[in-house]
Amino acid sequence: MPKDLNFAVLGLGMGMNHCQAVVDAKGARLAAVCDHDEARLHAAVRKFGCEGYTKYAALLKNRDIDAVCIATESGLHATHAIQAARAGKHLLVEKPVDITPARIRQLREAITRAGVQCGCVFQTRTEPLNFRLKKAIDSGKLGKLIGIHAQLPWFRAQSYYEGPHGAWKGTWKLDGGGSLMNQGIHTVDLVQWLAGPVESVCGFIGVFGHKIEAEDQTVAILRFESGALGTIVTTTCAIPDQSQRILVYGEKGSFTKTAYLESFEAGTPKERRQMMEWYGHKKTSKLGRDPLAVGAAGHVRHIEDLVKAIRRNTRPGITIEDATHAVEIACAIFKSARTGKIVKIKDVRR
Fold first, then answer.
1. Which of 53, 73, 163, 194 is most solvent-facing, going by the fewest CB within 10 Å?
2. Is the pLDDT of residue 286 over 90?
3. Which domain does 308 fall in, by range?
């Protein structure tokens, strides 16, 4: 059997999920962790029995490290990933890849020059239900899409945005926004992955329930390249918080999903019954109020996918190109909110 690849994790907030994912993944070994907070670092070293670094530069000099998981502040993802690429390390980058298309382009160029693999985290794409729904859309079971509507009514206490590990959240410089760029970026990505690229947006943002710099509520209208229209609503003000909700309808049918499949009216009667039997079971989720409740299962799939890409020299399941459009959409929504104008996606790519 081939030797397990040595992974390191940078950033031990959400990075703790990456650590557990590496431990659980086939073909991977957690060799090292890195964080400037020594308490978090020592806790991770004790839990996982790996090396610990307080200096990122020192970790990158370790020739035994094959890949680095980047789980630092969103606005530093590209900077840290570029440093790793230049050191010859393969990459798995947490969502969002970074907070501007320009920085993502810089990372793409660095990855190409270094010849390393880079996978990107959007674990909701790997969930079996979402995979089935995309297959239903792509196979034409819903017909030509007409409407795509998504809501993310979550809650974050003010304390989430405070303290030594919270002050960067809800800032434009390091978080790139609030409820849309941080919590909502998974929803934005899922919408465009399911329904196709977005052509233009009209957005509104505001701060309603927190003392933060960026928005804690966003409402946006989307026009897709296909001609379909959609909406996205994200917030961290909803009490009590609720599950993400997505409604998609086309000329032939529709579906509605939250944490489970609420309705599936597409395809044959047998297909409809089967989808509801498989996925129409109510599940409770703490994700709305607990950002670490996401668990490691989705990240395990990403780690194993990157291991396969490295060994076979093939593209990861979610490349940096795949992960860019969600950030473009978010940035276009923010630009629209600031200018009061409809913004085309092509205008934020420049």
1. 163
2. no
3. 5-123+295-319
Dihedral sign, Cα of residue 323, residue 54, residue 5, residue 295: negative
The sheet carrying 229-235 orders its strands as: 261-265, 254-257, 245-250, 145-153, 229-235, 217-224, 198-206, 343-344
Q: How many angstroms separate the CA atoms of 111 and 349, rounded? A: 19
Model confidence at 291: pLDDT above 60: no
Kind plus residue range of the DSSP H or E element containing 8: strand 5-10
Three-state DSSP at 69 gives strand
Least confident of 261-270, 280-289, 291-300, 331-340: 280-289
Could you give phi then psi for residue 88, rounded to 5 degrees? 85, 20
Asked if residue 227 and residue 188 are part of one domain, the reply reads: yes
User: Taking the complete model, does pTM exceed 0.85, yes or no?
Assistant: yes
- Give yes or no: residues 192 and 72 share one domain: no
Residues 167 and 259 grouped into a single domain? yes
Q: Does 289 score more than 80 pLDDT?
A: no
Are residues 118 and 130 located together in one domain of the fold?
Answer: no
Residue 131 and residue 25 share a domain: no
Statement to judge: residues 279 and 307 lie in one domain:
no
Domain-embedded: residue 350: no
Say what the pLDDT of residue 298 is: 87
Note the pLDDT tens digit of each residue in 246-275. Answer: 999 999 999 999 999 999 999 999 999 999
Q: Are residues 199 and 96 in the same domain?
A: no
pLDDT at res. 293: 46
> What is the rounded end-to-end Cα distance, in angstroms, of the chain?
46
What total of structural domains would you count in the chain? 2
Residue 119 covered by a domain: yes
Q: Which tens digits make up the pLDDT trace of 124-135?
A: 999 999 999 999
